[in-house]
Specification:
The complex is a heterodimer of chains A (588) and B (473).
Chain A (H helix, E strand, L loop, with lengths): L11 H11 L4 E2 L2 H8 L4 H4 L10 E3 L4 H14 L3 E4 L15 E4 L6 E5 L4 E4 L5 H10 L2 E2 L11 H6 L8 H4 L2 H4 E7 L5 E4 L2 H4 L13 H4 L11 E8 L1 E2 L23 E7 L3 H14 L4 E4 L2 H8 L3 H8 L10 E7 L3 H18 L2 E5 L4 H18 L1 H20 L6 H12 L3 H5 L5 E6 L5 H20 L11 E6 L4 E10 L4 H20 L11 H7 L6 H12 L13 H12 L9
Parallel strand pairs in A: 2-4, 3-4
Antiparallel strand pairs in A: 1-2, 5-6, 6-10, 7-11, 8-9, 8-10, 12-14, 12-15, 13-14, 13-17, 16-18, 17-18
Helix pairs in contact in A: 1-4, 11-14, 11-19, 12-13, 13-16, 19-20, 21-23
Chain B lengths: L3 H6 L5 E2 L2 H6 L13 E3 L4 H14 L2 E5 L15 E5 L6 E5 L4 E4 L5 H9 L3 E2 L12 H6 L17 E8 L4 E3 L9 H6 L15 H5 L7 E9 L1 E2 L3 E9 L2 H13 L6 E5 H8 L7 E9 L4 H18 L4 E2 L1 E2 L2 E2 H9 L12 E9 L4 H14 L8 E7 L4 E10 L4 H17 L20 H14 L17
Helix pairs in contact in B: 12-13
The chains are: A alpha+beta (588), B alpha+beta (473).
Amino acid sequence: MTTTTGTPILRDEVYAELAGIVGEENATREPAILDTYAFQYIAEIVVGDSYMGRPGVVVLPGSAEEVQAIVRLCNREGLKYKAVSTGWGAYGAAPEDGLVQLDLRRMNRIVEIDTRNMYAVVEPYVVGTTLQAEAMKVGLNTHIVGAGANTSVLASATSVMGQGTTGVSTGFSNRNLLGFEWVMPDGELLRVGSFEDSGEWFTGDGPGPSLRGLIRGFAGAFGGLGVFTKCAVKLYPWYGPARLELRGVSPDYDLDIPENHAAYIIDFPGWEEMKDFGNMVGEAEIAFSMCHNAPAPAIASMTDSNLSFYELWKGGLFANMKHTLEVVITARDAEEFAYQEGVLRDIEKRCRGREIVSSHYDLHYFADLVLGLARGMRKAGLRTTARSALPILRFVLEALRKGRTPDAFAKTLYLALVKQNLQARGIFRFGGSFWTSMGALTSWDCCIENAKEGERIKRSWIEKGVLMDDGAENAWGGLYESGCYGHLEELAVYDQSDPVCKEGGIGFVVDTVKATIEKHLAFSLNAVGDPMHAAYSPHVFYYHRHLAGIKEEFDPGALSDATFYIDREGTEEFIRALEAGEEIDMRL
Amino acid sequence: MELEGLSKAVSSGSVETRPEILEGYGAGNGGGNAAPAAVAFPQDAVEVRSVVAWANDRKVKLIPVSSGRPHAGSNPRGEGFVAVDLSRMNRVVRKERRNRVAIIEPGVTFDQLQAELSKVGLRAMTPLVPRSGKSVLAAYLDRTPTLVPRAQWDLSDPLLCTEVVMGSGELFRTGCAAGPGTLEEQWATGQAQKNPMGPSAFDFFRLVQGSRGSMGIVTWASFKCELLPRAHELLMVAAESLEPLAEVVYQVARARLGEECLLLDGNALEALTGSDGGPSYALLLGVAGFDYRPDQRVSYQRKGIERIVQGEGLRLSRSLCRTGGRRILELLSTPADVSWKDSAGSHLDVYFLTTLDRAPSLLRAMRAGAASAGFDPYSIAVYVQPQVGGRVAHLEATLMFSPDDRPAAEAAAAAAAAAAAENGAYFSRPAGGPPDIAYRDRPLLVRTLRRAKKVFDPEGVLNPDALFSREVV
């Protein structure tokens, strides 16, 4: 028997066998619980409904051996399966009903932190903030992705993407992956890299070709190529205290910025200066973090309610201060700090940058603040400036009344970038939901071109009433590996309960996809799933054929859910339609 | 072998069948390789594709060669295979200061490249004393360690994007070079082929790298360049044993100080400098300043390193083997016609990956292994190259010997490698040890690699015996 979508219905004896593998208490077919795996953020855009498919069963394995037994059982029974760790929206689920959902939350151990060789070995449910807290105790830090500090380190390293605001000093998740343990789609268990020979996980490359290249690229397989049960990731030096002592109540934390650390927001006359600054600071290797947050989410992060955000935003002044980069410096000692800040300010001068927020109070900063605000007012015009003045004054007075000191902005910025704790506050809150677009990993210059194009396209969708008016410019991203490459994705905020937004949101994404192809703006982060592969692949050496080749070779039964990975037939059907001049539905 | 089709696949006069030429492609490093039936010299990717298509039609095996000879034992067994010599594809396609990147074809050598890059204020990361005429791309595709661990974010660095002819004959590009758009169209939007990942959800370049030509033939690649220093000096520390120097390296890596960073023993230093009087071990640490406040950068980095060195009870040396830092710094990355390892006439290398803290015990194991085979363990030259910011260490033991002593040296090298393997050495590059040592007791890994190859080279035309022998399979 099958479900309405053709998936075999789970027989009682199979359920019993699954429960036998993980223990009765770690398996369920309870509908109310199953629905919690189906009700997912962004499902309304991905599949046109608030619910993804309801799994047939949820099992919580506690070890790689249990995962292996489940995958083997699924192969024997022809059951589709999908693993999820911390999950992030629709990507942890599948559109169809009935699959076996492996929830990896019990596998939550930091197996090892090798302090000397700067790497950690983690299970799937270890999240960024946990690993960071442990790493900081021994003078190390981890790359935390933009999805937030509460997301799985392993999922990002092995299976998803990996953008984060400290990438200039902590890289990208793909590049931080060392050895890993992989329950392959057929249930074989392979440890890739140095572990089998050395007992240590310090590299995932070789012998010979690196199988890291099989399991992921820019994106991962999103659960479409078996299950990863353990992995090693690079850690990076941390020159701060063993623990960042926070005061106050979430989300209005306060802290003392450590000695020889500093946080800045630097305003530029325009995009071209931002390009130059990013490239120069990247190659100078002085920044711990360097990224761009648009004015709207930045203000949302710094205000305590939607009302106070709106009061500040509606005047219009801040929308004119969009050419900014946020920088955090973390030096080991005063001499290094003097060098780093000196270089930063040399580069600011060359790029006409102005520090409009700084934790380092000196004459330079105060002069910059005045000049930077003056530049913003010039761009905004007299009327907009006047309209904004009173709400800003009210906001400042209210902040002072609450006991917040003038350096509160710099502290919030520092926390947001070091601990990645403000993502949800900044982007989900004022609209309810968001999707993203553009966002290729490419040279910083082209990232800026992505941001400009994303803003242009989004403005038209704001005017149609589909997307929230966030000023149109809402690019988020930064640089990676000392500026080797960067990314800027265009965020689009919408109300997921509004039918107009739900129906029209995909149109914005489609427009950005077309633009990246037609204007050669590199390979968007939206190129996930068959319709998107169909759009990109003919312009990118028909890559889908090779990706599908991997899938078919290692998972001939197509049991490891490939919704966000690849299906050759589905992709080629879309390609044929596009070649015939048809519009295709980009939803899955 | 019928070669008419092959002659048509490449430009006129680009197929060699003279025995004296073919012999050079069979001798290998130390002999033991069969000679090919012919050598094709394609001029560009179109011709490479034609050769691969011809090979697929005729089920002929190909071995790509970019400079010099193939590794011993890496040629297909028996006769009837063709070498694809890429040395005539030797253009520096692009070099760009703003994005610190260059694109080169496989025939470009380190000598040629450094001269080109310095014109725009850049330099390439080099292996320790690259051989003159050595293909840059071949070194990077083999994951040969380079001298600046700070600049290496991933073991694959400095390699970025590639253009590859797969074993299937399809042309493909990896990383952001794949598109959308041609290279020229990408350059017009400010792109620079610097993101090596993808396209999409696989990194084909990682499968090509380390495969010794068994997954695809690379026709060009982009790679990370570093800025040419405006101030540059070498700090040197000598010690009686490896351990305290390894401790210094750990601290320097943690502090993100320095540029070049490597450890050599006295034998290696003496051979490298051509002077005697080498210490037991030495740490070589470059410090540099670039376009922004170069002297200030050198100053604070030098002080930071000095503090670490003093903290370990060591001190900086002015010279080693009667050779000053400036000269040694120059020697490290300048291509040489004759390898420093051949001071006794010939040499064999055993190399693998480990971590710095395990390097001393692995070295002891290797020496014991070599001694058990009758080789003087203290004549072995040692080179330790920290990689990936100090997280990984390439440990290389070089047995230098007279050509007459090759059989004994081979036995000693095999014994040293076996001893290292027993103690946890990781032969990430299979050529670092005797055949199959990297794949011993790894049947699932071997099966997985074969399945991966099947995806991209279904007929198995590209260098099928490059990684492991049929016995392992």
